């Protein structure tokens, strides 16, 4: 199949790509939006991220007591306490002295990983403002920058525009606030229902590098078809679906109100707290360990499985399709390649093969710049988590189910600098191709 040549000045090692004048309307709107500021945007001045190490079970218990204290308003950034691995906790400025006193009084080892979160977020905002002006003057979409949902959706349309014989868009549903669940489909099957791979991103709203990596990956798939042997042979045999933003309402909210928002934006009857953790809402050991029944919790599982329309839309589409062979969910941060299960220590039936694929994936990820990824089941190397995407996929017959935790390991956490988007995407691509090739040869 011959594809039209893109007029883009195209190189995925560089951040900028030509963008056409009909996209200027949204750029002007976005520039005005971030330039004027949002009056009710939550700020994090003086908030610090503590990295806490625990050496025994008694220290784990003490740290759990601290983290679960309602009055301190702590925000767990990375992993519940576990021996051998640090826990990152965001501490509000008003709680700093109390938390430090607790840690010192109980002889808990800690360091300050982030001195002032707002300083990092201010730099991120300034970079986005600079990017808007750069795109306005150059008519370019910058793959090395963070973007709004509208910008990502428009770039998805651009990909379809320049690769119409390979790529199409599918709207699989709408969010709670009626935003499109917009998916790119890569296929050479001319409408036939073929084996397929699903790439999910942005299910947790604050993990911005996940959608950024997904849209970069979508462009890479389109450009490499006919040039890269793995992608070309795979697309001759199966389809690839990419959902860059699986939680659109939450993602928009991180741009307009609270940069650290994680959940959906659905209303919880009887509670003033908004949203559900969409990665605890899947019908796989729903409501079990690692999820909470309190709507105010960041890991609230929702009132019932697939209560979140965003989750239901993906699940219904995948089940109706009936021939998905692989499900990959992109998250950040911690640098891990994970596979089922999250809700039990019991090994999955295909654990040995999944572990082998995951280890090969981690090796591929490290080839570009030496970035090290840990490998294992969700339960074994992170924490217990019920109702997750990959467990649901695996329990519903999708054998090759993996979750990536992208860069970094905590220096920036959810506020990874935009300068790391392309390096993250490039190394992730090598890992994704490792999985894609194995799936292609084993379906």
UniProtKB/TrEMBL annotation:
GO MF annotations for this entry? metallocarboxypeptidase activity; zinc ion binding
Q: Which GO terms describe its biological process?
A: proteolysis
Q: Give the Peptidase M14 domain ranges.
A: 145-439
Main localisation, per the record? secreted
Q: Which InterPro entries match?
A: CARBOXYPEPT_ZN_1, CARBOXYPEPT_ZN_2, CPA_M14_CPD, M14A-like_propep, M14A_act_pep, Peptidase_M14
Q: Which UniProt keywords apply?
A: Carboxypeptidase, Disulfide bond, Hydrolase, Metal-binding, Metalloprotease, Protease, Secreted, Signal, Zinc
**Can you say where in the cell this protein is located?**
Secreted
| The protein's name | Carboxypeptidase A4-like
Gene (UniProt)? LOC110145372
């Amino acid at each position: 199949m011959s594809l039209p040549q893109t007029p883009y000045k195209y190189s995925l090692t560089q951040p900028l790509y030509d963008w056409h004048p009909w996209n200027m309307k949204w750029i002007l709107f976005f520039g005005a939006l971030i330039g004027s500021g949002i009056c009710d945007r939550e700020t994090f001045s003086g908030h610090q991220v503590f990295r806490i190490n625990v050496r025994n079970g008694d220290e784990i218990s003490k740290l759990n007591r601290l983290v679960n204290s309602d009055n301190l308003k702590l925000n767990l950034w990375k992993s519940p306490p576990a021996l051998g691995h640090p826990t990152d906790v965001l501490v509000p400025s008003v709680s700093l002295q109390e938390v430090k006193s607790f840690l010192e009084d109980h002889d808990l080892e800690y360091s300050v990983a982030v001195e002032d979160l707002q300083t990092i977020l201010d730099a991120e905002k300034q970079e986005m403002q600079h990017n808007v002006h750069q795109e306005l003057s150059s008519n370019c979409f910058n793959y090395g920058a963070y973007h709004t949902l509208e910008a990502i959706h428009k770039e998805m349309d651009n990909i379809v525009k320049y690769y119409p014989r390979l790529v199409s868009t599918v709207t699989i549903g709408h969010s709670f606030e009626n935003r499109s669940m917009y998916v790119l489909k890569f296929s050479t099957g001319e409408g036939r229902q073929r084996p397929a791979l699903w790439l999910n991103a942005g299910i947790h709203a604050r993990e911005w590098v996940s959608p950024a990596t997904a849209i970069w990956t979508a462009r890479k798939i389109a450009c490499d078809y006919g040039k890269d042997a793995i992608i070309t042979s795979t697309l001759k045999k199966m389809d690839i679906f990419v959902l860059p933003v699986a939680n659109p309402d939450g993602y928009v909210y991180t741009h307009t109100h609270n940069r650290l928002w994680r959940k959906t934006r659905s209303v919880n009857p009887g509670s003033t707290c908004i949203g559900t953790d969409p990665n605890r809402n899947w019908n796989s050991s729903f409501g079990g360990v690692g999820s909470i029944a309190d709507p105010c919790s960041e890991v609230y599982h929702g009132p019932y499985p697939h209560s979140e329309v965003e989750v239901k839309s993906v699940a219904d589409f995948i089940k109706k399709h009936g021939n998905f062979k692989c499900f990959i969910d992109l998250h950040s941060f911690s640098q891990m390649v994970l596979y089922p299960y999250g809700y039990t220590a019991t090994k999955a039936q295909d654990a040995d093969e999944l572990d082998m694929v995951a280890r090969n994936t981690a090796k591929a990820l490290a080839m570009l710049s030496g970035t090290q990824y840990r490998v294992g089941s969700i339960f074994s190397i992170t924490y217990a988590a019920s109702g997750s995407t990959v467990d649901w996929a695996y329990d519903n017959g999708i054998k090759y189910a993996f979750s990536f935790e992208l860069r970094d390991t905590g220096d920036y956490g959810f506020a990874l600098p935009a300068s790391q988007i392309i390096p993250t995407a490039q190394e992730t691509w090598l890992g994704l191709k490792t999985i894609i090739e194995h799936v292609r040869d084993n379906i």
